[in-house]
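Database export, one record per block. Field names are fixed; values are copied verbatim from the stored entry.
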Amino acid sequence: MKIATKSTSLLIVFCAICIGFLTSLDVLAQRPDSTVATSKIKRISKTPQIKSSITPYKPPFNNEFSFITYNSILSSNATIKPSGLKDDKILTVVKIYPNPVESQVNLILRLDREINLSVKILDLLGNEIVTLSNERTASGEQTKTYVIPNRLNSGIYFLRISAGAETVVKRISVL
């Protein structure tokens, strides 16, 4: 036999002996975790209850079908308003046209009372670019026309319409 083949066979035998010896050691074997075996699992005996004074919603029933018919809802004049919400809306923006805007923009809006109306153009970051109007406006539905300045670059802007403490923001595209 050649020396190279003798040394490879000797190396293989030596590796087999080492592997056999190492697998017989307890150090490499897995041991059961003693903390898991001794600890007890705590079980929840009852579900926590939420205590509050909110009454559940119970819809009114019609004796004939055990529910309210759609026609009875339409015929009733009473409106159901959630408590705590205001219905005192001063400003309602009905329409902004044309959009995309070239040289002027038209606003159709409704005001419930005479109030100071402010119309401003903002960029995408919310920075004020142009104030189109800041005037006292009468109540009712009105159509306002504003000229867009030439210095405004093409792009997307926001139109902020403020009446008193109420503010409405609409997106416009400028060509």
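Remark 1: Strands lie at 91-97, 104-111, 115-122, 128-137, 140-147, 155-163, 166-174.
Remark 2: The radius of gyration is 39 Å.
End of record.
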